[in-house]
């Protein structure tokens, strides 16, 4: 336990005041603060140099790049899943259309070929032919007898 508590700081201040006196204590504190600042800066410089040697920055960059690549892979997977779903849907639509086309083609081929149950076609009578103008009655088919 290297922590310095309030009591220890108070004890150091009282001893410093007794040894140095009230006139020299503020200058001594300033000098001590300068030395502490220099020590911290040099310690930070040494720490920075060690981090460079170890490659901590490179490791951080690599971890960051890996995180970005993971996000890209997730996005790529989502896109490929979406494309696969779209392909499946288009294949399903194509197969439905092909099936409908086959049904239509088979229906046309049945309509084009005559079957055994079909009736012979009725002869077409044009309206200008004499048969169509004459009434079709029993009396008209028999020869007329002269009236006597």
User: What is Rg?
Assistant: 55 Å
- What is the β-strand count? 0
Please give the alpha-carbon distance between the first and last residues.
159 Å
Number of helices: 4
Shape: rod-shaped
Order of helices and strands: HHHH
Q: Sketch the major β-sheet.
A: none
The assigned structural class equals: mainly alpha
Average of per-residue pLDDT values = 79
Strand-residue proportion: under 5%
Describe this structure as you would to a colleague.
Helices cover 77% and strands 0% of the residues. The protein is an all-alpha fold and 148 residues long. The longest helix has 57 residues, at 56-112.
Keywords:
148 residues; mainly alpha
Short account of what is shown:
The chain has 148 residues and is an all-alpha fold.
Which helices and strands occur, and which strands form pairs?
Blueprint: H1 6-54, H2 56-112, H3 130-133, H4 138-141
């Amino acid at each position: 336990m290297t922590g310095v508590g309030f009591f220890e700081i108070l004890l150091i201040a009282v001893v410093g005041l007794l040894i140095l006196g009230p006139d020299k204590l503020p200058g001594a504190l300033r000098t001590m603060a300068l030395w502490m600042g220099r020590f911290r800066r040099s310690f930070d410089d040494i720490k920075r140099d060690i981090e460079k040697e170890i490659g901590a920055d490179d490791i951080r960059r690599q971890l960051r790049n890996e995180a970005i690549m993971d996000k890209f892979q997730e996005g790529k997977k989502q896109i490929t899943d979406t494309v696969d779903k779209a392909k499946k849907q288009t294949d399903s639509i194509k197969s439905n259309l092909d099936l409908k086309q086959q049904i239509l083609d088979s229906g046309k081929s049945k309509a084009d070929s005559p079957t055994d149950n079909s009736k012979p076609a009725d002869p077409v009578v044009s309206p200008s032919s004499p048969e169509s103008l004459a009434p079709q009655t029993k009396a008209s088919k028999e020869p007329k007898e002269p009236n006597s």
